[in-house]
Amino acid sequence: MKIFLTGGSGFVGGAAIKSLAPRHSIVALSRSEKSDAVLKALGAAPVRGDLETVTSEMLAGADAVLHSAAFVEEWGPWPAFEAVNVTGTERLLAAAKKAGVKRFVHVGTEAALFYGQHMRDIDETYPLAPQSPFPYSATKARAEMRVRAANDPANGFETIVIRPRLVWGEGDMTLLPAIAAMANSGKFAWVNQGRAMTSSTHIDNLVHALDLALTEGRPGEAYFVVDGPAVKFRDFLTPYMKAAGVELGEKSLPGWLVRLVADAAEPLFRLTKSASPPPVTRFAAHMMSRDCTINDAKAHAELGFRPVITVAEGLARLAG
Ligand SMILES: NC(=O)c1ccc[n+]([C@@H]2O[C@H](COP(=O)([O-])OP(=O)(O)OC[C@H]3O[C@@H](n4cnc5c(N)ncnc54)[C@H](OP(=O)(O)O)[C@@H]3O)[C@@H](O)[C@H]2O)c1
Predict the structure, then answer these.
(1) Residue 171, exposed/middle/buried by CB under 10 A (0-12, 13-18, 19+)?
(2) 216: Cβ–Cβ under 8 A, 6 or more apart, which residues?
(3) Angle between helices 175-184 and 233-243 (to 10 degrees)
(4) Mind listing the pLDDT tens digit for each residue in 50-107?
(5) 89 lines ligand 1 (CB under 6 A)
(6) Residue 136 bears catalytic tag
(7) Looking at residue 319, what is its pLDDT?
(8) Ligand 1 centroid to 128 CA: how many Å?
(9) Predicted TM-score (pTM) of this structure
(10) Which CATH class is domain 2-165+200-226+293-307?
């Protein structure tokens, strides 16, 4: 199969190329020379462009699209999130349809449902949050809505969404470096002692699910994929960071206080168009103090998804 992939220079897209390239031909969208080199080394053919300019010609001959690119920065103006996550996804959908792509697999996220609440034992019946106060959440929700609305099997165009939660493992360029930077500069503190319960998705499990979604699952549907039973943030993050040589310490702040500070500071930082984020963003403050536990029975039943690695195995592999 010929696959057009976005986000290949990132954590998720890169791991997907590594796994898929031996069995498929991969063309990957690249924004820079640096990304060209990364993509080639992973086994993909780079095509220069971005989500702002992607055309159907770039996707010529592709059977499937795997859309992993997104504006995943911790901080940025709303229009930047909107332009990449929503408008960029719309443009890619239109290009894919025009190029005769048969299946469009979108990397979604549980954050697209989040507006600051606990989410306990949720499944795909839980509503998206396109009006979330958090730009990442709102724009990823709207992107997913566009993807599912574009599903058009009668005309040979199928779309499907895979939703991981807290992706981790070898090659993590998002969660691990962010926490490590905070810890190394003495700014890390647990929220509520790290007691919040969280589901997680090891990168190997996510890549396996994305692979399945190229051929399995019901078009137009979204599927959560997680490692298994939820764990306490603290029980997960402590060994994860320790394997990278980072000690997180004992400092802890109450959730209500962290949320209060973030809710007060962020509007001021936005008003002044600050280029640097507040000490803690509203998204991070709310996310770290809320439970998020996910039931992925639908992916088991319809995609045939089974985790290929458990949390314990993934942590042991990193520690080794
Ligand atoms: N990591 C997680 O915990 C997690 C959890 C749930 C869902 N997800 C989803 O997984 C996907 C990938 O995330 P990730 O963790 O792999 O992020 P990442 O490592 O930061 O990678 C982001 C990728 O998107 C590309 N990109 C950004 N803006 C672009 C644009 N305007 N045009 C084209 N490409 C652009 C980047 O290219 P450059 O290298 O050129 O910057 C990079 O390849 C996202 O859709 C995210 O929402 C991630």
Answers:
(1) middle
(2) 302, 303, 304
(3) 80
(4) 999 999 999 999 999 999 999 998 899 999 999 999 999 999 999 999 999 999 999 9
(5) no
(6) yes
(7) 87
(8) 20
(9) 0.97
(10) alpha beta
